Amino acid sequence: MPVMTTTFAPPPTGQPAATYDSASPTLTSSEFEQIRRLAYQNFGLDLKDGKQSLVVSRLGKELRRLGFKSFEQYSRHVGSDPSGQAMLEMADLLTTNFTSFLREPAHFDFLRTDFIQQLPPNAPVEIWSAASSTGEEPYSILFTLMECLGPQANVNILATDINTRVLRATADAVYEARAVEALPQGWPRKYFLRGNGQMQGKYRVKSEYRERVHCQRFNLVTDPMPAARFQAIFCRNVTIYFDKPTQEALAKRLASTLTPGGYLFIGHSEGLGGVDHGLDYVKPALYRNGKGGLWRNSAGR
Length: 301
Ligand SMILES: C[S@@+](CC[C@H](N)C(=O)[O-])C[C@H]1O[C@@H](n2cnc3c(N)ncnc32)[C@H](O)[C@@H]1O
Prior knowledge:
Radius of gyration: 21 Å
Order of helices and strands: HHHHHEHEHEHHEEHEEHEEE
Strand order of the largest sheet: 6-2-1-7-8-10-9
Shape: globular
Distance between the termini: 43 Å
Helix content: 25-40%
CATH architecture of the largest domain: 3-Layer(aba) Sandwich
Bound molecules: S-adenosylmethionine
CATH class of the largest domain: Alpha Beta
């Protein structure tokens, strides 16, 4: 078992305490439409009919915290807040953040085998985890590659999400012992510190690995694509919340951000069938940007 003697700082505790009355405001159909429009236009979330109870349960508390009596008042506030902060908070509340280490293991098998073999010798590796949630995905990518390439490898992962709370969790990189101890043998000791005292039952990713995961807020629907080119992009289990036109526009934009020969990984329950993106199908949930040597420089070297 890993040995650790220091207690690392506790993760942030989130929202300040507030008192609420327990009655949930009702959501009229025109209020649902307003919230649906805001979520769709600002972060692509396609709130289908039937999602009214999700809206009430996710936003009701926030509405009461802010002292609004109706969803109408709340959505007016979100739509007119010039700082954009209220919209950020709404995105934090409405997005679904479920994730886990080595989720959809076939993708990590592919990284360990085919992907590694195609990397030019000693080339820096730059991968984008484009809806990274609380960090299990980017750290799984990093550890998988470090295992194959060794400790000297120059691997960097860009971890982005629209949700600022999950990005803070990624940067903190504190995880439950249960999840860490289920990782392949040797990984907990190599990549994590075990907490004690207040942090008993938790592990934290060692700083030399945290440094390789660069967290940034990024909205997949509205933000301009990064200038960098990536040998692989993981954009998994997020487009299920988008409609077809949003999925299509995003797939094209992601394709333009891959190196020649670069790979796009999507969730196994997602499909790009019928979507015009210009990528080659490799196998379920995996696409490739033509042929190429995975050099990061688009000139081919
Ligand atoms: C279900 S999690 C998937 C996490 C990870 N990719 C995985 O497969 O385990 C979906 C993530 O997408 C993020 N998300 C939703 N809409 C987004 C948007 N418009 N831009 C960026 N991230 C978004 C959510 O905040 C959430 O963390």
